[in-house]
Amino acid sequence: MQLKGKVALITGASSGIGKAIAKLFAKEGAIVILTARNLDKLKLVQSEIKKNDGIACSYSMDITNREQIKEVVENVLEKYKKIDILVNDAGIARWGPIDEIDYEDFDEQVKVNLIGNFNCIKAVIPSMIGNKSGNIINIITSTVKNTKAKRVAYAASKYGQAGLSNAAHEDLKDKGISVIAIYPGKTNTPIHDLAKDDPSRKKMLDPMDVAKLILKAALIPVSDDIREFVINP
Questions:
Q1: Is 154 a catalytic site residue?
Q2: pTM for this structure?
Q3: Active-site option among 80, 103, 154, 183
Q4: Does residue 71 sit within a domain?
Q5: How many domains are contained in the chain?
Q6: The domain spanning residue 182 has which CATH number?
Q7: Does 86 reside within a domain?
Q8: Residues 221, 180: contact at Cβ < 8 Å?
Q9: Which one of 170, 182, 184, 231 has the minimum C-beta count within 10 Å?
């Protein structure tokens, strides 16, 4: 029960890595705040957690909607008086080279992956600064470490997210808040469902392996000044 009594807000908690984090955090005693756009899927995750004696509640939240984020954060603070951990997992990926990607796809990936993460960090830090403690974990991608072709919009948004995480780390470490970026390699999540029969999926990371690293990051004290972790298959 390494997170007993901690309140953890997780974006993108309805599937994939976010779902694995939610289940692991709940097992470790956290009060898990599940957020994503699809409330029905969140309720299924919430039911799984409650069956295993965990504590979870669900909120439909679009990370590009600042008013909606503000409302969720205010509700959580009213109910639990604090947010100890924010895990930014929500994101989208659409592949295509620069000569083919359209403006709308590029803009949307930047809006979700970069600006959406900024929105969530901005919403939780006032209470964390007030409590002089907190852990913010930003799940990025190993694409930032080794960019490949046909990922121009995804890579640009994720490089921006990496810069945001690093800068927030520097801004907040003296205020008692740890900010850590996680760079997972290819992970077997619904993002790859278009290639369901791809044998390479068996070689991908299991979402729970990534979740275990994120649990480790959530337990690191700000005084350790850790900025990032990389995990590959």
A1: yes
A2: 0.94
A3: 154
A4: yes
A5: 1
A6: 3.40.50.720
A7: yes
A8: no
A9: 170
